[in-house]
Structure formats: C-alpha cells, structure tokens
C-alpha cells in the first residue's frame, strides 16, 4: 500500500507541475500577443518618422540634416537642386534668423505600397529670434494648416518628395502664412 500512496502523491505533484507549466505558457503567450498588438497599433509608420525627423532638423536649424530627409528626385529636391528663386538661401536665412520650436505635433498617415501621405493634424510652432532671449516673435497653431507631406520609399528609405503647398509662394511672403 505504501507504494500505491507514493505513486498517487507523485502523480499529484506532476499534475500540479504540469498545470503550473500550462499557466506559465498561457501567461507568456498572452504577454507576447499584447506586446505585438501594442506595437502594431501604436507604432509610428516609417514615413511619418521621416517627417518628424525633418521637423527636428528644422528645430535644430540643420539645413543639411533637413535635406537628408528630402528625396532629391522629388519636387522639393528638384527645387533645392535648381535653387529655384533662391530657395536654398531663403531657407538657410530663415533658419539662421529664427529658431522654431514645435510642440504637440500630431499626424495622420496613409500609406500604400511605396507612397505615403503624412498630414499634419495638430501642434504648435513657437518662433523666436535666434540668439536672443525674450518673448517669441510668433506662436502659430498648426491644426488648421492642412499641410500634407508626400513621402516615397526609395531603396528602403522613406523620403519627403513634396508638400501640398507652393513652397516658393510661402517663402516669398505672398501669403500671410508666415507672420514675420
């Protein structure tokens, strides 16, 4: 009888260990599914990440870094290469003269294949005179800008090809978009 009781006790122990292993497996599987689901739902699309990087380069006043975000074969890249209406000097001058601080930027991204549209849905830009302390020159709400970036994937890298605004018209001051 003792052997029978020992066998039953061993069976209960292995049954408990088996149930524990099953629960550990279920918990690990649920955690993995949750992590994968989180990153699938909340990850930033690579095209949007490139637009965000372009905003960072503008904040830093880094024209060369900004141009690394631009597709040289796209509309913006051609304007830059051809220096249409002094685009390079105008942008460099603006970034030398003003410091732009972007905050609370929000985007909506639609992508299909190697093309994406990244729409600026909200945020603010505070504009300061570079190198000076004091109040901002302007504070702009970007929520109603309707600005859309056209982004293309070239050789695995997402690059900004164009925007839905006429950049030269904005920079020439023919529109009241820039308050300075």
Describe this structure in words.
- This protein is of the alpha+beta class and 180 residues long.
- It folds into 2 domains: 1-43; 46-171, Roll (Nuclear Transport Factor 2, Chain: A).
- It is built from 6 helices and 5 strands, in the order H-H-H-H-H-E-E-E-E-E-H.
- The protein has helices at 2-42, 46-60, 63-67, 75-82, 87-97, 167-171; strands at 98-112, 115-129, 138-141, 148-154, 157-163.
- Strands 1, 2, 3, 4 and 5 form a 5-stranded antiparallel sheet that branches.
- It is elongated.
- The N and C termini lie far apart (97 Å).
- The relative contact order is 0.13.
Main attributes of the structure:
180 residues; alpha+beta; Nuclear Transport Factor 2, Chain: A; 2 domains; 5-stranded antiparallel sheet; 47% helix; 27% strand; elongated
Would you summarize the structure shown here?
With 180 residues, this protein is of the alpha+beta class. 47% of the residues lie in helices and 27% in strands. A hairpin with an 8-residue loop joins strand 2 and strand 3.
Topology:
Blueprint: H1 2-42, H2 46-60, H3 63-67, H4 75-82, H5 87-97, E1 98-112, E2 115-129, E3 138-141, E4 148-154, E5 157-163, H6 167-171
Antiparallel strand pairs: 1-2, 2-3, 2-4, 4-5
Share of helix, binned: 40-55%
Structural class: alpha+beta
Largest pleated sheet: 5 strands, antiparallel
Named at the architecture level, the CATH assignment of the largest domain is Roll
Number of separate structural domains: 2
Alpha carbon gap, first and last residue: 97 Å
Form type: elongated
């Amino acid at each position: 009888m003792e052997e029978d009781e020992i066998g039953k006790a061993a069976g209960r122990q292995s049954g408990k260990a088996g149930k524990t292993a099953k629960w550990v497996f279920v918990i690990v599987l649920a955690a993995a599914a949750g992590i994968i689901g989180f990153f699938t739902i909340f990850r930033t699309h690579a095209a949007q990440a490139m637009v965000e990087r372009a905003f960072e380069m503008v904040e830093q006043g880094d024209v060369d870094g900004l141009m690394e975000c631009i597709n040289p074969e796209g509309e913006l890249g051609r304007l830059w290469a051809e220096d249409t209406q002094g685009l390079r000097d105008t942008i460099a001058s603006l970034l030398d003269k003003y410091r732009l601080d972007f905050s609370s930027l929000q985007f909506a991204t639609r992508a299909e294949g190697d093309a994406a549209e990244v729409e600026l849905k909200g945020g603010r830009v505070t504009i300061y005179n570079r190198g000076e302390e004091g109040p901002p020159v302007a504070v702009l709400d970007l929520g109603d800008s309707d600005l859309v970036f056209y982004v293309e994937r070239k050789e695995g890298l997402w690059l900004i090809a164009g925007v839905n605004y006429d950049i030269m018209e904005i920079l020439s001051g023919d529109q009241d978009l820039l308050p300075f």
